[in-house]
Amino acid sequence: MKIAMLARNANLYSHKRLKEAAEARGHSLDILNTLRCTVHIASHNPQVFYNGSPIHAYDAVIPRIGASITNYGLAILRQFEMAGIWSLNESVAIGRSRDKLRSLQILAKHGLGLPLTAYANDPKQAEEIIRAVKGPPVVIKLIEGTQGIGVVLAETMSSAKSVIEAFRGANVNILVQEFIKEAGGTDIRALVVGGRVVAAMKRTGAADEFRSNLHRGGSAQVIKITPEERSTAVRAAKRMGLNVCGVDMLRSNHGPVIMEVNSSPGLEGIESATGKDIAGQIIDFIVANAAGGTTKTKGRG
Questions:
Q1: Under DSSP, is residue 130 helix (H, G, I), strand (E, B) or coil?
Q2: Are 126 and 166 a contacting pair, CB within 8 Å?
Q3: Which residues of 226-241 are buried (b: 16+ CB within 10 A; e: fewer)?
Q4: What percent of the chain is helix, strand and coil (3-state, nearest 5)?
Q5: C-alpha–C-alpha distance, residues 20 and 191, integer Å
Q6: How far apart are CA 97 and CA 76, in angstroms?
Q7: Is the peptide bond before 136 cis (omega within 30 degrees of 0)?
Q8: What integer is the mean pLDDT of 50-66?
Q9: Alpha-carbon distance 208 to 259, whole Å?
Q10: What CATH superfamily is the domain 117-179?
Q11: What CATH number has the domain spanning 2-93+285-289?
Q12: How many C-beta atoms lie closer than 10 Å to residue 166's C-beta?
């Protein structure tokens, strides 16, 4: 099988591991810099060019699109889909996951556990939305932030209002969420592949850091999750339409609550913590499921 990966940095751990796993199984995997891909639009002839040459004959594509180029990356991925190339995660599903507000709305519609969340445009409504999530304290986060970037814990009403007013003054869209104190600065990352949890880890934030992201100095250890947590992760992946994702949850007094569904989860932390060959399981899933023309959305939406 010939696989393409859309990624800007071929040297990242996750990207190297996926390439190694594919080649160890007798497949080829080319890492294509997403920004060097171009779309040529013509009736009945969707094409993607790479470094000026047309791309042909890939059986599947793995999108590892950075958050900073989401819109451009999804445009490229849609073109692959319209050409009938199977995508590990489809463009519509990735678009849902990258918009935190939309993803929370979808998950809430299907009854999955979430922290209380509020959204408003007018900074004059700051106090209203802070009280709506039983704060302060509250967590304020950018709608399109990743890896803990753009996430602030505001512990008083005045500080929360100041942060909201500052973000909105800069015309930045934010969410205000309930602070789950009982989580104690830890969260759970459940890695879902093909509708089942294949690995899970507990992440703990660095000292004096409420965010548990490994990119922010957090640590990880293997954990046995509860049946409810496993079911929550699987249902979240299904409702978002993602074949592979990391589901980040907090343990609250009323059960697991989902913080984020990540469509391009990093593999280094969870492979190191669990000792599992997650990259290999992803490649095995691709081989078992990829077939030309079976992309559900065909690039629509």
A1: helix
A2: no
A3: eeebbebbbbbbebbb
A4: 35, 25, 35
A5: 20
A6: 17
A7: yes
A8: 92
A9: 20
A10: ATP-grasp fold, A domain (3.30.1490.20)
A11: 3.40.50.20
A12: 14
Every domain range in the chain assigned CATH 3.30.1490.20: 117-179
**Each residue of 201-259: pLDDT tens digit?**
999 876 565 555 555 556 789 999 999 999 999 999 999 999 999 999 999 999 999 99
Q: How far apart are CA 121 and CA 181, in angstroms?
A: 27
Tell the CATH superfamily of the 96-113+182-276 domain. ATP-grasp fold, B domain (3.30.470.20)
Contacts 24+ apart (CB under 8 A), 247-250: 247/189, 247/190, 247/192, 248/187, 248/188, 248/189, 249/113, 249/187, 249/188, 249/190, 250/115, 250/180, 250/183, 250/186, 250/187, 250/188
Q: What are phi and psi of 227, to 5 degrees?
A: -55, -35
Q: State how far the Cα of 301 lies from the Cα of 283, in Å rounded to an integer.
A: 26
Q: Would you give the DSSP letter of residue 232?
A: H
Where in the chain does DSSP place strands (E)? Answer: 2-6, 28-32, 37-40, 47-50, 53-54, 60-63, 86-87, 117-118, 138-142, 151-154, 174-178, 186-193, 196-204, 219-222, 244-252, 255-262
More reliable by pLDDT, 174 or 33: 33
Six-digit token string for 189: 């990352």
Task: Note if the pTM is more than 0.90.
Answer: no
Alpha-carbon span 5 to 28, nearest angstrom: 11
Pairing status of strand 53-54 against strand 219-222? unpaired
User: Mind listing the pLDDT tens digit for each residue in 133-173?
Assistant: 998 999 998 877 555 577 899 999 999 999 988 888 888 88
